[in-house]
Amino acid sequence: MGKGELTRQAILEKATALASAVGLGGLTIGKLAEELELSKSGLFAHFGSKESLQVAILERAADRFVELIIRPALRAPRGEPRLRSLFEHWRQWPKLYSMPGGCIFVAASVELDGQPGPARDLLVKQQRDWLDVLASTVRGAITEGHFRKDVDPEQFAHDLYGAMLIYHHALWLLRDPKAEKRAVRAFENLVEAARRPQ
Amino acid sequence: MGKGELTRQAILEKATALASAVGLGGLTIGKLAEELELSKSGLFAHFGSKESLQVAILERAADRFVELIIRPALRAPRGEPRLRSLFEHWRQWPKLYSMPGGCIFVAASVELDGQPGPARDLLVKQQRDWLDVLASTVRGAITEGHFRKDVDPEQFAHDLYGAMLIYHHALWLLRDPKAEKRAVRAFENLVEAARRPQ
């Protein structure tokens, strides 16, 4: 990896930290240049436009998400242990990737949902891929006999994502001291329901 | 209600519709003036600042939420029927209050979480109040014998809110044709778990 690529990644990680606080919409190349004490023209040479910067931020975040969340979880045995490991790493994600204002994907989902374009298209693809990873991990838990055969893996993935979204809401907006405890309870409730013989 | 108050409410509802698409952060008094073909100075006379406008938008939205969601649900019998009615009205909320870009509270939650000030303070209070309404409705279902005595009403409210957040994610970002079906399933799963004898 050349020096240029390292610089680009370092810039993107600072940009993500900033966007996690002010939002993707609030992040202009001018503001980023000011924050990093770099020249605006230099940043334009790297990213070209605000929208390309948004795309680059999402791409870099997804690469890091694979490295920090998915790869470590793959070391856990297939089935419920792997699902549990995914959920635990996922909960730590804003800390692991230094996003002081919370998850960039949660922010982008709300900010971009009504804004057609390459950044939104990329985000939708990333979110579907992630739901697929979750559903396929649930499928693994069925194959291993940890979960009942009639559990709906897509519904489980959907519900688990809901548990994560309300966790973020409770943590970042409400500053609820019970946010962590509630997230763990929500996960355990989903797992217990999927295990329970009918 | 005087003409001035009616005008103010009409302006706030247009402002909310606009903010639901461009975000609260993207909504300036200038942009609103342009959209409504009103004078910028007139709007300043009504609202004073962007932040007061945000506060007024949230206040008006909460009033309408009570009228459109909570009041009709109170007509249902206490307990599970009332909880069900709340959830059904809540799902329709973006349509009932004409928010073409989705729920203003969901957008504001992500936009304001890192921005201290009166708008954030108000939103936090509104969100806690709403979680209290949900929890107290669940408590009613326990009293009526619809739900088990050991159900945790706050956890249920939290999980139900999670189901609503992922519903919005699936609907507005992913445009998932199964979003509605999954939301209903998530609700039924929560209710079934709360009913099941242990």
Give a structural overview.
The structure is a homodimer. Chain A contains nine helices and no strands. The first copy, chain A, is mostly helical and about 200 residues long. Chain A has a single domain, classed as Orthogonal Bundle (Tetracycline Repressor, domain 2). The interface of A and B includes residues 167 and 174 of A.
Throw out a few tags for this protein.
homodimer; 198 residues; mainly alpha; Tetracycline Repressor, domain 2
Give the oligomer, counting copies of the same chain as homo and different chains as hetero: homodimer
- State the name of the first-level CATH class of chain A: Mainly Alpha
Number of helical segments with 4 or more residues of chain A: 9
Structural class of chain A, by secondary structure, is mainly alpha
* General form of chain A: elongated
Helical fraction of chain A equals over 70%
Amino-to-carboxy terminus distance of chain A:
54 Å
Largest interface: A-B, 45 and 45 residues
Radius of gyration of chain A, in angstroms, nearest whole number: 18 Å
CATH topology of chain A: Tetracycline Repressor, domain 2
Main sheet: strands, sense, barrel of chain A = none
List the helices and strands and how they pair.
The structure is a homodimer of 198-residue chains.
Chain A: H1 3-22, H2 29-36, H3 40-47, H4 50-74, H5 80-96, H6 104-112, H7 118-143, H8 153-173, H9 179-195
Helix pairs in contact in A: 1-4, 4-5, 4-7, 5-7, 6-7, 7-8, 8-9
In short:
2 copies of one chain form a homodimer. With 198 residues, chain A is mainly alpha-helical.
